[in-house]
Amino acid sequence: MSKQAQLAVDGGPKAFPKASGKPQPKIGIEEFMSVAERFGFTPAALKRLRAAVSDTDLRGNGPNLARYACPFPDDQPPKGVQFEQLATEMFGVKHALAVSSGTAALHAAFVAAGVGPGTEVICPGLGFMATSMAVMMAGGVPVFADIDESLQLDPSKIEGQITPRTVAVAPTHHWSNVADMAPILRVARRHKLKVVEDCAQAPGAKYRGRYVGSIGDIGCFSISAYKIIGGGEGGMVVTSNDRLFDRVRQLAEGGGLWRPDRFAAPRYAGELFPGTNYRLSELESAVDLVQLRKLDQVCDRFRAVSRRILSQLATWREIRPQTINDPDGFIGYQLRLFPATTALSAKIATALRAEGISAGTRGKGHAPDWHVSACMYPVILKAGHIKGGSVFEDPRWLSRGGRVNYRGVCPVAQDLYGREVAIHIDQWWSERDCDRVARGINKVLSAYCTADPDGKPWS
User: Do 351 and 447 contact (CB within 8 A), yes or no?
Assistant: First the structure.
């Protein structure tokens, strides 16, 4: 046998010792420039950026924007890991998982909390529909409980909605305010219900010195372009319960990619079940890591502005200011008031805008809005994605006495949502700006309302 024919394993020459083709990075300069364009740099700035970078500056095959698929230096863990580590430190929890959206966070949290066919979750009658839809995605049935003048879940309305099918309650910290968590937790613990906090509209808010999301069993955040921090789409789940966190990851991480030995048999009963992929990309994580570092400063600016304005507002017979359950924890990126009638609300909102103050109201019989339960058609119509596929038709729910009527169940939410006047606050206002806004609000209210020193205070 010739040397050439001898197998390399037996000492012969390799058939393919080295590739002669010249590899190019899978993700290179053009992808980088595409991101730079999305940031809105001017053409001149983009030209300078292109001149400053080149494919030859990239290590190996270039970057990879998936969390598990690219090597990192020992002193620089993936951005997703850094993002989660920062969240655990900031919120004072044991575990955090970055996910693709706030809705993904809710879905994973409800699955972790034991929501499934035959179960129910109590949701507030005001708050974006993602909360109740995520209950249905987990296989459960949302049951709405009314709100109070804080626009948060009314703790006194929870008990009446609890059934033998109830497994969780989902207070929503809505529009920079916080739910009154102490009585909510008392009811939940008495009935052995899990508490899933929806913090999408109030990241950084606090209740009695603790960040929302760290108070119940599981906290869910939306960290996106539509919230006070976030650049695109993203979310976060936090908890200090080890088993709940395993279940969160099992749903959100592709059915077990998170495990030390991902393909191994279950380590304990109930550990493994089918999951999906809600992982956050490294690109989003890189942005959201920076955004999360800014959260306290953003909230502090909003608080300073809203407090200065609120401290100057007079009280009025026809006006009920929004209840603030924790003035120190309230973020205050919107101020809300409830005039006695929708007609008065419309006059006040129009007059405030004429003064240069951004304000709005909806009115009685307003257009459908997925923030109030009466308008959440994908939920209240009880439809499934196919005929017979609705959670409301599931025999496991019906056989346990399942029955829910969504008509007229949250009259306070419906009333307040139509009457409220929302005033939008800018974190960058100067003290002079705040004073002028406060004077403008008092000016408008004095024209339509009766001064009442004993009226409900603003905070």
Answer: yes
